[in-house]
Please model this.
Amino acid sequence: MLWSAKALVLCSLTALGATRALATVEAPVQDEAAAEEQSSLYDRLGGVYAIGSVVDAFIDRLLVDDTLNANPAIAAARDRVPKAGLKVQVTALVCQVTGGPYTYHGRSMKDAHAHLGITEAEWEAMAADFKATLDSFEVPEAEQAELFEIVGTTKGDIVVAEPTGAEADPDAIYPAEDDTSLYGRLGGVYNIASVVDAFIERLLVNDVLNANREIEAARHRVPKAGLKFQVTTMMCQVTGGPYEYHGRSMKDAHPHLGITEAEWEAMAADFKATLDAFEVPEAEQQELFAIVGTTKGDIVTATE
Model:
């Protein structure tokens, strides 16, 4: 059970290509060395879209790493934790520790890893996957060194001499049962991220939307992983969750796309189909569409 409301709006907007596209993880070129020295690591990496793309590729590497999956506890966690939600959580964490505007709201590294019994060899396997991912995105060595220094500070909380023997709580990643907000009723960031992931995939192959040249061009320009992260944070925010969206407003993001009533309806149909696929209850669906409806005037700007 999942999802949020204004997210539909953002989803439409971003998926239609309305948000800022940061496609590179290379440090931006600057005229003055002083300006570069003052920029945050977050900015030098390329911001949320670039970081989201790197995290997406890194998590995919980890999930098929034979060394890690040989650990039964890690293999079980791989099957238990929704991949889309894991990617959102890691992206938020990386954005936070590199000086970006997003904040991580998950468990501490110590609490999240104690039951896994991670060894030195498994830590090294993870580090090798991280290095390979950064190299594939051509992240400069200076930025890589900063990232590894940050990651190194967590090693003491992740690598344990012996497993604790404690069983993982399968509900630890979800909101408490007494969270009656729409966010809580939808299942929190892990569930919302899973719905957003499926929704964006539907939008990106929607023939009605892609017939609009501006939307189709934006689909190729905006990094998909970053788009999914942005939509997820917006959905969490508008449904009462702890994450905050830091992208452009709906009004600023959509004018150049020339979205029509028919395109809005196509997006809404994809949203409905996605919610149905995840068996989101009708009451929560109605709340979501009510929120989405308030943004229509900022998104639909063209006549048929």
